[in-house]
Amino acid sequence: MSESTGVVFPIVDGRRSTVATGRAVVADALRAVDPIGATACERETHWRAGYLVHFRRLVEAGLPTADAALTIARDGLASTHGRLKWGDPDAADQPLSSAFGQHPAPVATEVVEGSGEVERELTVPYKGRRLGGDDLRRQVEDWIARGVAEPSLAGIVDEVLAHPEWLSLPDRTVVVLGAAAEMGPLRSLLRWGGTVAAVDLPRAGVWEPVLAEAGRSAGRLLVPARPGDGPLATRAGGDLIHDLATAGTWVGGLPRRLVLGNYVYADGATNVRVSAAVDALSEHIRGMRGPGEVALSFLATPTDIFAVPTEAVAASVDAYAHRRVSKILRVPLRTLSGGRLLRRNYVPGEDPGLNDSVVTQQGPNYLLAKRIQRWRAAVARDEGAPVSFHIAPPTRTRSVIKNRALAAAYAGAHRFGIEVFEPGTSNTLMAALLVHDIMTGPRASLGHPWLDEAHGAVHGGLWRTAYDPRSALGLAALLGVGASR
Asked: Inter-axis angle of helices 363-382 and 66-83, to 10 degrees?
């Protein structure tokens, strides 16, 4: 995948710099609301090690008012779109918006009609069972009681259980950008009889399992494909980073009202490029189809920085006082580590609290890619667009398991009250929340973007655990190293 074509980082001092660009975007986002923070960000000389304080400031600076948070989001998005470019191998870099002025490649829509039976009730796989009805309600209440999810989750799930006719999202086409993503809703929506338009890289290995799943399902899969007689898996797909014009033409021409679901992921700096590409595509399609015709959907990572309700702070403070790791063990561990291990999650009485669950191994590019999505969700909701945004639980996805340190930390996390979900549980539950949001939306803001983000959050316990997650991560990894193998 070329770093010099498609959506690219700008050239800074003779090379395409992810560090300079990431630092500049964060500073631009802060400038109007927190000029001192913006200056501190611009002066950061070791971005890969020092980025956390500046991303934390993005949340802190927006807490006083909704207008402050929305200003940060709008300015961050404007900087992203202004700084990233459209790279042409035969010409100088152009503005990102010029991507849609290119000539689209020929592409047709192939339809895969599933042959399976429609699942007409919501069931969620969990520990070897499929939970529905009252069993699922009880499990949700258990997650809430154990601090794994916020109390608002119960009402959302209960409403979907009461309206199984919602599951297929009638009269909508759900565009799953990142169709093969483990956390995406593609499989659930197809089981429920929905219409899904799938976009992912043009690689047979990506498409073969997606097409097989669609064939077994009860749904209808729409696939962009290059003309020809070869197997569909070898012709399907599109490259969002390098061919936005074709993607925009195909998605813009899809039938019915659209739900644009952002489930893309890539390693390193490519994650920022693809996140910016999807944001540009989403804005392009919203402009084409009109404000009421396009809903947006996002899943946030729990390993980020969020403002949290005072009830979560109180639960964490209580846990710190009474259990998890005995006070006898906690004191020497903190002393030996110079205070780095087993720190409090919050100062008692914080309202709202600020939870920092960032995993440093994921790096600043990962955090910026996810922040672009959070900014867009907040701004689009403020504009009156239908938006589904939910914090998904820590999950044993392939991208987690391949990182040995993170896999070990997840394996030992239960010792600190953190529940790590299996992919099937996470993606089905998150698909149900998407269904709820689309069928009941657009929903007005709860008063501040941080409140909207916290609504229905399934953070796995990171918000309510006794200890600052990063201060317990190393110990969790040590305890889980054997189980993760």
From this structure: 120
Residue 154, φ and ψ in degrees, nearest 5? -60, -45
246 DSSP assignment: H
For position 124, what pLDDT does the model report? 98
Give me the CATH code for the 108-309+350-480 domain, please. 3.40.50.720
Q: Which residue's entry shows tokens 């996002």?
A: 298
* Distance linking the first and last C-alpha atoms of the chain: 32
CA 81, distance to chain mean position in Å, is 19
What residues contact residue 328 under an 8 Å CB cut-off, 6+ apart? none
Tokens (6 digits) for 423? 């992919």
What is the pairing mode between strands 220-225 and 257-262?
Answer: unpaired
Query: In 3-state terms, what secondary structure has residue 303?
Result: coil
Give 265's contacts (C-beta < 8 A, 6+ positions apart). Answer: 178, 181, 271, 274, 399
Tokens 């993606």 label which residue?
Answer: 427
Q: Which sequence spans correspond to the domains of the chain? A: 6-101, 108-309+350-480
Q: Tell whether the model's pLDDT for residue 484 goes beyond 60.
A: no
Write out the E strands in 263-364: 294-300, 305-308, 353-356
444, pLDDT greater than 80: yes
CA 410 to chain centre: 18
Confidence of residue 234 (pLDDT cuts 50, 70, 90): very high
Q: How far apart are CA 181 and CA 363, in angstroms?
A: 20
**Alpha helices (H) in 413-454, listed in sequence order:** 423-440, 449-454
64-105 pLDDT, tens digit each: 999 999 999 999 999 999 999 999 877 789 999 999 999 999
Give the C-alpha separation, 354 to 1, whole Å. 37
Greatest Cα pair distance in the chain: 70
pLDDT level of residue 324 (50, 70, 90 thresholds): very low
Tens digits of per-residue pLDDT, 130-142?
999 999 999 999 9
How far from the centroid of its chain's Cα atoms is residue 143's Cα? Answer: 21
Q: Which of left, alpha, beta for 246 (phi over 0: left; psi -120 to 50: alpha)?
A: alpha
**Average pLDDT of the residues of the chain:** 94
CB atoms within 10 A of CB 326: 8
pLDDT at 335 over 70: no
Structure tokens at 454: 């916290």
Kindly report the CA angle at 361 between 143 and 399, in degrees rounded to 5?
65
CA distance 23 to 44: 8
